[in-house]
C-alpha cells in the first residue's frame, strides 16, 4: 500500500466536507513522509520504509475513529457560513430592536407624552413605559388577553422569545467557550439588559423586566437546541463503521 492510498483510506469516511478532508489528508501525508524519510536515513529501503511507516501509524480504521471523535461539530469551511449568518442575525436584531422606523415613531410619541405629563404637572406618568415588577406584563397578557390584539400578544410573548433563540444556538455552535449553559445565560441576560436600557434611555421603547425573562428563555431554548443537535451528531459519528486495514504491502 502506498502512503497516498493509506491517507486516502483514513480520511475517506470522516464526517466533514471534502475540503476539510483534503486538509486532514495533506497534514497526515506530511507526517507520513516525515517518518518515512527518517526511516530511509536510518538505512531502510524505500519500500520497507513505507511498510514500517504504515505499521507504526496503525490501522486506518482506528485513526479515522480518533479523528472523527475529535472533529468540531462544523468544520472551518462551513463555519464561515454560519458566522455570516450570525452577523446577519445580529444586524437584523439590532435593526428591529433599536433602528427600525417603528422604533422612531414610538420615540416621537414617548417624547411628546413625557413633555405633556411634565407640562400638566404629573411627572410620575412619564414612567408609564417602564415595568420593573416581574411577571406583571406576562400576567396581564395571559389573563387580560381580550384587551390586546392577537398580534400584540404574540409580538410581546413569542416574539421576545424567538428574537433571542438564535443567539443561544449560534454562540455554542461557533465558540467553544460558550458551550456552557451558564455563559449563554449570562450573555443573553446582559445583551437583553443592554437593549432594554438603550430603548429606555433613547425613548425607543419601554423597559420591561418581563422582556428580560422572555429573552433569556429564548436564549436557553436555543442552547437546548444546540445540545440536542450536538448529541445527535455525536451519536451518528459513533455509529459510523471504520474498518481497520493493516495491509502494509507496498504497491
UniProtKB/TrEMBL annotation:
Task: Name the UniProt key words of this record, in alphabetical order.
Answer: Membrane, Transmembrane, Transmembrane helix
The regions listed as transmembrane in this protein's record are 81-99, 153-177, 184-206, 212-233
- Cite the VanZ-like domain residue spans from the record: 87-228
Q: Which domain of life is it from?
A: Bacteria
Q: Which Pfam families match?
A: VanZ
Return the PANTHER family for the record.
INTEGRAL MEMBRANE PROTEIN, MEMBRANE PROTEIN-RELATED
The name this protein carries in UniProt is: VanZ family protein
Which species does this protein come from?
Brevibacillus porteri
